[in-house]
């Protein structure tokens, strides 16, 4: 029996995990399978002692894999073995005796408000279809805090210009509504007009109703969005990471700095728990400490 395939099917159809999660889990499980076969374990072995898993972890760390990446793999294995235990394929869960390596805590990187103002108010994106679309990509990620997968999945029917909101499909197919501003509405309408003219002019069709499209009229794909975001963030920030997720962090941090309630930010981001949102309070606290040191006479 192919337990991995059964597990991945369970994640896809019952847990409704994203394609990205499915690919990551499949890669991690395949990597461990290769590790076992290199030590003469039969293919498909699932009854593994905790020491075997710990040995695999040590090998990964010695190869230079970060503790954060190893922890992500361990998380995949915990889910896998919980599934095997629940289905009755194993008698005990070996992951109960496996401790994850400690990871250094990194606060989410974000672009300062002044830098975002420069990008959106002073940088020339261009007035053609490509420029208007690229600016809209940046603006939507920054003004809504949506995930990359949510952005690429938005269809034209998901953008309600009358009620000023966008419907997105988040993790595990959880739908949520995100408000947009009147200025964003005007930007959307301009883009849609230019999109229609561009597709007709280029003789392109068949974008399946997706809102944002590539130069060839197709649905946006992750690497395309990464390239756009990286190119424009590079103009205004020296952050090591210049990804769509940085704009999500920037959205949350700026909202919190301007007085938004943590629960409201949680709902806008689509977090399942408040704990995931509370990490942004650290960025705010660093800003408070800086203000304190600059302003208090005895700081």
CA-atom Rg in angstroms: 23 Å
Helix tally? 13
Kindly provide the name of the CATH class of the largest domain. Answer: Mainly Alpha
Using the coordinates shown, work out and report the CATH topology of the largest domain: hpI Integrase, Chain A
Profile the largest sheet.
Answer: 3 strands, antiparallel
Structural class: mainly alpha
Distance between the termini: 66 Å
CATH H-level superfamily of the largest domain: Intergrase catalytic core
Q: Give the domain tally.
A: 2
CATH architecture of the largest domain: Orthogonal Bundle
Helix and strand string, N-terminal first? HHHHHHHEEEHHHHHH
If you average the pLDDT, what whole number results? 90
Nutshell version of this structure?
With 299 residues, the chain is mainly alpha-helical.
Secondary-structure map with pairings?
Layout: H1 3-13, H2 19-37, H3 50-62, H4 67-86, H5 113-121, H6 129-144, H7 148-153, E1 159-160, E2 165-169, E3 175-179, H8 182-202, H9 222-233, H10 244-257, H11 262-269, H12 274-277, H13 280-295
Helix pairs in contact: 1-2, 6-8, 6-10, 10-13
């Amino acid at each position: 029996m192919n337990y991995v395939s059964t597990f991945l099917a369970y994640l896809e159809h019952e847990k409704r995990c994203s394609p990205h999660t499915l690919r990551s889990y499949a890669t991690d499980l395949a990597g461990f399978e290769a590790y076992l076969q290199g030590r003469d374990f039969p293919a498909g072995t699932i009854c593994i002692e905790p020491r075997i898993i710990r040995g695999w972890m040590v090998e990964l760390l010695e190869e230079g894999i970060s503790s954060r990446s190893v922890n992500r793999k361990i998380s995949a294995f915990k889910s896998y073995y919980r599934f095997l235990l629940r289905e009755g394929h194993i008698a005990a869960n070996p992951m109960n005796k496996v401790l994850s390596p400690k990871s250094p805590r990194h606060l989410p990187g974000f672009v300062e408000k002044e830098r975002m103002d420069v990008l959106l108010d002073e940088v020339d994106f261009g007035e053609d279809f490509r420029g208007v679309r690229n600016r809209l990509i940046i603006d939507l990620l920054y003004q809504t805090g949506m995930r990359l997968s949510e952005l690429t999945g938005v269809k034209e029917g998901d953008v309600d210009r009358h009620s000023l909101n966008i419907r997105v499909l988040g993790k595990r197919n959880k739908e949520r509504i995100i408000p947009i501003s009147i200025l964003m509405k005007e930007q959307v309408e301009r883009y849609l007009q230019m999109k229609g003219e561009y597709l007709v002019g280029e003789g392109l069709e068949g974008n399946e109703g997706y809102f944002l499209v590539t130069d060839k009229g197709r649905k946006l794909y992750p690497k395309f969005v990464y390239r756009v975001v990286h190119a424009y963030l590079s103009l205004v920030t020296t952050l090591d990471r210049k990804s769509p997720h940085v704009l999500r962090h920037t959205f949350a941090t700026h909202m919190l700095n301007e007085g938004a309630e943590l629960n409201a930010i949680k709902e806008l981001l689509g977090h399942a728990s408040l704990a995931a949102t509370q990490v942004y309070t650290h960025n705010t606290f660093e800003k408070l400490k800086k203000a304190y040191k600059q302003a208090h006479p005895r700081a």
